[in-house]
Amino acid sequence: MNASRLNTEWIWAIIAIIVFTGTLYLLAPILTPFLIAAILAYICDPLADRLERYKFSRTLATTFVFFGLLLTFLLLGLILFPVVQNETLHFVQRLPDYLVWIQTRLAPLLHDRFGVTLPDAANLQQMVRDHLQGVGSAAGMLLPTLKDSTLTALGILTNLLLIPVVLFYMLRDWDSFVLKLDELVPRRWHKKTQTIAREIDVVLAEFLRGQLTVMLIMAAFYATSLWAVGLDYALPIGLLAGLLVFVPYLGVILGLGLASLAGLVQFAELSDLIPIWVVFGIGQVIESMGVTPWLVGERIGLHPLAVIFALLAFGQIFGFFGILLALPVSAALLVGLRHIKQAYQQSSLYQHPNV
Fold first, then answer.
1. Last residue of a domain, which of 158, 184, 210?
2. Domain contains 220
3. Contacts 24+ apart (CB under 8 A), 197-206
4. Phi and psi (nearest 5°) for 341?
5. 324-337 per-position pLDDT tens digit
6. Residues 215-256: tens digit of each pLDDT
7. Are 177 and 198 members of one domain?
């Protein structure tokens, strides 16, 4: 009877896992804002709890933390927007000089070494005139694509506007959500589940502290290195590239793009951009192969090779958000594997191989 009951419980547990996984798969296109909001709510919940200890109501504490987070993102935007605006303006103003440089320096080099001939200014203008005649028909063919792109853009905008709304309610009711999930756990598994949950929480806290350290180190590296190679906008670009390393590849791609654009505005020769590219190449190697595995991997108990493998594997399976969640999810799975290993080593299968 007990064995039959145990088998029934396992069957129901497996069914629940399958239903939950299938639901996540089917709802994946609309879960992005909820996922981002849940991550931010988890990060900000300790701050709200601390304010509650100072006699703040949960709603008031949530409001303070929420607007503090918005202010942080606003400051990042204020750092980024003037840089992009000024560099774009200067780039447009110097565009004729770049065209002259292409015709007088780049075109002869490509022709002499690779046999590639670039059109001159007159031919380029004629090509534009010729192609303008087909703009009407091309626009008609592109209307369905433009319609789909517009709908996609509206979807992205809706998700961006939905994130702060979901974040506020998740952060305000975070403790009640956790309590309701706790009530769903079968009582016979309750104590073990609480133990594992606490260990996961500790590991994730270590991950966040390690990631913050990586962000500060890389911000200092990029700002100092770009200043050393003589880039005018070294400080804002370096800070932005370093602080965005928590999203893999976003920091280095955005920083490299802004630094290259700033270099085109500031320097006369394209070859002067090579030191900037070297800085970001070295920074990417240091961050992905050294700092992140060392500071983040060791804090959460993952070997540096496991960190690299987790990033590649989750990115391959789940795309961008897989890369973003690779390390915290791997840390949580590692806690579960430790308990599975402990249960296995205490089982008769391990201790009594002849049975």
1. 184
2. yes
3. 199/335, 199/338, 200/331, 200/332, 200/335, 203/300, 203/301, 203/331, 203/332, 203/334, 203/335, 204/42, 204/300, 204/328, 204/331, 204/332, 206/299, 206/300, 206/331
4. -65, -40
5. 677 677 777 777 77
6. 889 889 998 999 998 887 788 888 888 888 876 677 788 888
7. no
178 in the same domain as 212: no
| Amino acid at site 233 | Y
DSSP state of 119: -
- Rounded to two decimals, what is the model's pTM? 0.63
Domain end residue (candidates: 149, 167, 184): 184
Distances (CA, A) of 149 to 31, 88, 244, 305: 20, 25, 27, 39
Q: Based on the structure, what is the number of domains in the chain? A: 2
What ranges in 54-134 are assigned the alpha helix state H? 58-93, 95-101, 107-114, 121-132
Give yes or no: residues 276 and 146 share one domain: no
Q: Quick one: DSSP state of residue 108?
A: H
> Would 23 be classed as within a structural domain?
no
**Where does the chain have alpha helices with state H?**
2-53, 58-93, 95-101, 107-114, 121-132, 135-172, 174-184, 187-228, 234-243, 250-266, 274-286, 298-299, 304-318, 320-345, 348-351
Domain that holds residue 285: 190-346
